[in-house]
Amino acid sequence: MKKLVLLLASLSVIIQFAGAQTTCANSNFSMNNFTNWTGRTGTCCPINIPTVGIVPGRHTVMTGTGMDPNTGNNLPVVCPGYAFSARLGNSGTGAQAEGLSYTINVALDSSNALFYYNYAVVMEDPGHTPAQQPRFELQVRDAFGNIIPCTSYLVSAAANIPGFQSTGSVRWKPWESVGVDLSPFIGQQVTIEMRTGDCSQSGHYGYAYIVAECRPMKLSVSYCYGSNTAVITAPPGFASYQWSDGTTGQSTSVVNPVPGQTLTVQLISISGCQAQLIAKLYQTVITPDFADTTICKNAQFTDLSTALYGINVQWDWDFGDGTTAPNTQSPAHTFPGGGTYNVELVVTSDNGCKDSITKTVTIDNVPTSAFAAPQVCGNEWSFINNSVGNNILTGIQWNFGDNSSSNDTNPVHVYPDPNLSGVWNYNVELITTNENNCSDTVVVPITIHDIPEADYNFPAVICKNGIANFTDSSFVGNENMAAWNWDFADGSSATTQNPQHSFTNSGIFPVQLIVESTNGCRDTIVQNIDVGEVPIADFPLPNACGVQIVFADSTNDQGQPIVAWDWDFGDGSGSNLQNPQHLFPANGQYTVELIVENSSGCSDTVSKLITAFDKPVADFSFVSACPLNPINMTDQSTAIYDAITSWTWITSPGNMVTTQNTSDTYTTAGYKPVTLMVSTAFGCSDTIVKNVYVYELPKPDFSAAPVCEGFVTQIVNNSQIDTGSIVAYQYDLSAAGLPMNPNAAPGVVIPSWGVYNVQLVAYSNNGCVDSVVRAITVHPNPDAAFTVFPDNGCSPLQVSFADQSTIPQGSIVMHDWDLDLGYSNLQNPNFTYGTGQYDISLTVTSDKGCIDSITDVNAVIVHPDPVAFFDPSPNSNSVIEPYFQFDNQSTGYVSSFWTFGDGTASTEQSPFHIYPNDVVGSYDVSLVVTNQFGCLDSIVERVYVYDDHVIYIPNTVTQNADGINEVLTIYGTNIVNAELLIFNRWGEKVGHAKGWQMDRLTWDGTGSNGKPLKQDTYSYKLFYSVTSGKDFEKVGHVNILR
């Protein structure tokens, strides 16, 4: 089990009860929200909550005295002793899961090293498997996300769970407290996560109630001066406590402890983890004290108390005048009057020890501060000091409320302009002090009454006898305006805020406005008003034919210059000129209006009726024609109120006629300007210019790309016309031996090659005709031909191809050969073929792109080659038995020829061959096979004759004088030399034999000292060389028996 030992030299901290915490803000939901908590949601089971965020209804802060209805109203929704808790999950179903996590930075002083939480669980029991049941889980993770041992807790719904109660199918656990020791993670970050989940079948719920706080992971020692018993209390939330004095429980006591005596407690969590805390016992001594000098009525007490082996945490005062100040260290107090009072201070330490002190204090009477501040308009104030006192006043301090002060008796102070500062109200403070340094303070609120700023607006232009609107724009800070007095300087006045006034004379008038605020503050403004003279508008009445009419202004300016004219001609148009010209759109009567304005902005208007005579409308019609054909032009002019009496035509430069209708002939196509001028009997005239249109001639054109003989000549019609359209074509192909062709874009086959002239005639939709002649070219085709040599043979067969192609005109520039196995663009290519029959094609192309092809089927025949192959058996053999069998596995052959690499040969189909038995090495064996066409194939394989030897070493010698196996004899073949070394069991060399005679080496058991070796087992090493020159080594053992 994990253990933690904390040694406390002097423990004096009292563990606080519900609601206490250290640097774990809102862990007990005291903010009535989830600040510092992280919510998650997801599904169950298993619990998977990837979505981050607080979800109302699934994360709920609880408060009040309500009971959970699913427990038969037996479970409080808020943990007893707390104001708030949180419900994690709800009574809804759907396989939902919820989580809440809280992250703590464990303090270096261990002040929050105990995470203390209370929880209650409510779950339906559907009778599923444990993995499917509703559940509640808790785990603590370190800064790296690892689960801290002994912190995990999991419970799923089931009957008869220890600590749970049942209400129908609901299993619920009453509130239970748990402490989590975080001491091993001091200076680190840990996260506590609590999770709930419904059943995985979506039909049953599971939820929990939680609340938490942080506490010190320390022992609390209460051992007060005068007491003979020390009471030691361990942190709450653990399953069991075992004290070193043998007691159990959260607290223990020691009678008459020795100063410095130690006491240890072993704490075991609900998950079985252990922690150990140690305390040393010292008696707490409190020395209460406070300053006791003569003081004023408004007294400030200063605590001077100390504590040995403890910390003072509570101070309770009794001032001797019937009032107290509980739990205040250095209180301020106002006594009812001067005199003496017995003041008592009771001091309490963090471990519950108390002591008290009583002092008699003398209270001096204080002066009475008072002043007057008469109301004024504006921000300059005079203050009158009316303070009194029993003793001599030695100090006066004014604070005007705007961060300025004075020590004058009756000061004058100017406040900031409230319209700039935005501050209108101030608290003025007067502090007076007597000769005993006792003081009194009075605060009087004042309000600055702003002086109004008079102002008004008036029209930019005011004319004699006109109505002028005067608009008040005066301003007065944070008050209201109460009165307005106007004087218009012409003997009239007004008292309304925004009056109207009419001046009967022109000139300058000084208009005065006096305004007064609700507090009687006033201001005055005078502005000069310029009243202008009014002009008299007029103009003479003109009458005219339908031409530009000149209007002449004749206005009387009354001594002030006219600066603007506004004409309305009664036909929807107008002008701003003084003397404008205007052409009316039709004859008739029109009301013309003139508005004039002088330099003072004053205006006048006049309207008159005028008559405009009719103007004829010139017009004519015409019929377009082709060039060199006459175009007839017919007069279409009109005059509504008069008759047209004359016509003048200009149909072309220098051609003028005066008949009503006319005609003209043009040589070119396009638009031709024609002018017609008509006049009425009254003399009004009009002129029109029209563009008479002469039809365009078609522009026939065509092209035909040169083609090869026998191919279709595609004639592309490129004819155009600028206006109108071409409706018919006629091709004349007689020069090429073909009949007339009416098609617009014919495709024809000209029977032989050559160059031919072809004519195209085009007809427009207006009956205009034109033609064009173009040349068409037909190129001759080449005649493809070739020869092959040789046309048959064995594979591979190299064949030469010779071009024999011709062309009557031009040249052949490209040869494309299809050689059946490949392609070539050489004129006379060569190609090598393998076995088979091959079709050869040649395509030739002329310099004009004309093509001819020829194909020769089976032009090349290549006979098949035999395939040589054999299998030597074996591939290698020893020089002792150099025998080889060669198995001929060739195909498509009729004869064979072998060479064996040792100067010998054979024509057998599958020969057997013996190599010399005294030669070691490799031999290249060659096989050449021939078929009925005389075609050959060959193959070479290498066989090996390797060096070999045989050696036999017995392992026992029986030297018993029976003549059998008396010596160790080593036999072998192909061995040329040998040396035998004999060793005893300690590795010492004890025998030796050398040489090789008659394929053997013998040793008679004699040791290196010349004496027979005793019966025993010996090790040997044998070194020997073979006929190939290689050296070998063998090791083993030999037994000598006697």
Structure description:
With 1042 residues, the chain is an all-beta fold. It folds into eleven domains: 23-215, Galactose-binding domain-like (Jelly Rolls); 220-281, no CATH class; 285-364, Immunoglobulin-like (Sandwich), CATH 2.60.40; 371-447, Immunoglobulins (Immunoglobulin-like); 456-532, Immunoglobulin-like (Sandwich), CATH 2.60.40.10; 549-612, Immunoglobulin-like; 620-694, Immunoglobulins (Immunoglobulin-like); 702-779, Immunoglobulins (Immunoglobulin-like), CATH 2.60.40; and more.
Instruction: Profile the largest sheet.
Output: 6 strands, antiparallel
Provide the spatial order of strands within the biggest beta sheet.
3-2-8-14-10-11
What is the straight-line distance between the termini?
Answer: 72 Å
Label the overall shape: flat
Averaged pLDDT: 87
- In the CATH hierarchy, what is the architecture of the largest domain at level 2? Sandwich
Q: What name goes with the CATH superfamily of the largest domain? A: Galactose-binding domain-like
Q: What's the gyration radius in Å?
A: 66 Å
Strand content: over 45%
Give start-end ranges of low-pLDDT stretches.
Answer: 1-22
What's the CATH topology name of the largest domain?
A: Jelly Rolls
Q: What is the CATH class name of the largest domain?
A: Mainly Beta
Give the assembly state of these chains.
single chain
The helix count comes to 1
Helix/strand-derived category reads: mainly beta
Overall domain count: 11
Fraction in helix: under 10%
| Counted beta strands | 91
